[in-house]
Give the backbone structure.
Amino acid sequence: MWRTLLYLLPLLPAGFPSAASAGCDLRPAIVADLTERLGQTRRGLGVTQEQTVLELFAADDGGWTLIATTPSGIACPVASGRSWTDAALALPARG
């Protein structure tokens, strides 16, 4: 899963110029929609070199959404899907 996210990062436009057409909004509105309408809660997050915050939201029914939030507070859905499973994976030692 995380490898897939790494491949998606270059696809994120700097500053999200077409935010309205991509379903973007202020982060609180996006999070409210995910939690209230879809029952999703935040399961993980990370910060890119450009200070964009990536957050993964998932529901107990397996639905999930990845959002990216710019430093200005605009959040855009990046990907979504079904069959999310929380997993604690042992990572290989750094080499």
Notes: Helices lie at 2-8, 27-38. The longest helix spans residues 27-38. Confidence is low (pLDDT under 50) at residues 1-21.
